[in-house]
Amino acid sequence: MLALPALSQTAAPDTSLLAATTGLRQQYTQVLRDESALYSGPEYVNYVRPGTQGHRFFDSPEPQAATITYSGISYAGVPARYDLVRDQLVLNAQSGTLDLSLVPERVARFSLGGHTFVRLTGDSAAGLPERPAFYDQLVGGPVRVLAARRKKYRESLENSRIVSEITARTDYFIQQSGRCYPVSNVGDVLRLFPQQRAALRSYAQTNKLVFDETGREAAIVALVRYQATLGAATN
Questions:
Q1: Which residues on adjacent β-strands are paired with residue 147?
Q2: Helix (H) or strand (E) holding 115
Q3: Residue 10 lies inside a defined structural domain of this protein
Q4: How many angstroms separate the CA atoms of 108 and 176, rounded?
Q5: Are 135 and 146 spatial neighbours (Cβ–Cβ below 8 Å)?
Q6: Of 55, 75, 58, residue with least CA distance to 67
Q7: How many CA atoms lie within 13 A of 119 on its CB side?
Q8: Does 113 fall in a domain?
Q9: Beta bridge partners of 44
Q10: Is residue 123 within 8 Å of 132, Cβ to Cβ?
Q11: Count of structural domains, the chain
Q12: What is the domain extent for residue 83?
């Protein structure tokens, strides 16, 4: 008896696999499009003379992993540096051959070295010396503590040779009710919270808060965080 060959059926395409593959391809295309938008700023040129004392970047002259909100899109793990002299966020181009500076107006915020910087413009920057600019947000909420971290690059002629150095300065502000106020000592902070003045003064004395150059930042942050726990206490 002759055996008849079995008729085989062509397997139907796996629609779920096809859909997943298509979805991944679309996501990958979108990522590439978003990445190209991020790496589209002007070239960042080194303007510092060799042998300059100090460096112009926040925290470290080496790139650090940053999270950046750029043109409404969030990017994580981006190698970046923050130039405090020019108030610019700097990226190493994907080709690795040059550096790029992001367009400041498109950067809403970025996190770098454990700090979160926000760009303040218009009414949000009322009372600040620089508008618009990036500020380090040390305390968030209805009452914010902001730090203006800036550096200056100077060149001078000494003994017929050019000497260059970079110096740093940080100014602090408390933002409440839509306005920013400069603060540098305990009195500046207490004046902003008259109803809680006594409690804040006692807290500063008990915890030995120091407002010198090395302790000012921690003292301001501690007072404002404590203020947030108080009710509308009076003197």
A1: 136, 172
A2: strand 115-120
A3: no
A4: 20
A5: yes
A6: 75
A7: 19
A8: yes
A9: 99
A10: no
A11: 1
A12: 25-183
pLDDT values of the chain reduced to their tens digit, one per residue, 235 residues = 444 444 445 455 556 555 554 444 444 334 444 577 888 889 999 999 999 999 999 999 999 999 999 999 999 999 999 999 999 999 987 666 789 999 999 999 999 999 999 999 888 788 888 889 999 999 999 999 999 999 999 999 888 889 999 999 999 999 999 899 999 999 999 999 999 999 999 999 999 999 999 999 999 999 999 999 997 554 4
CA distance 99 to 92: 4
Beta bridge partners of 141: none
* Predicted structure pTM score: 0.81
Q: How many CA atoms lie less than 13 Å away from 52 in the CB half-sphere?
A: 18
Dist. CA 160–CA 41, nearest whole Å? 38
The C-alpha atoms of residue 173 and residue 161 are separated, in whole angstroms, by 39
Q: Is residue 150 part of a domain?
A: yes
* Token representation of residue 160: 């017929």
**Taking the CB of residue 176, how many other CB atoms lie within 10 A of it?**
15
- Are 127 and 180 contacting, i.e. CB atoms less than 8 angstroms apart? yes
Does the residue 104 lie in any domain?
Answer: yes
> How would you classify the pairing of strands 107-112 and 64-70?
antiparallel
CA distance 96 to 99: 8
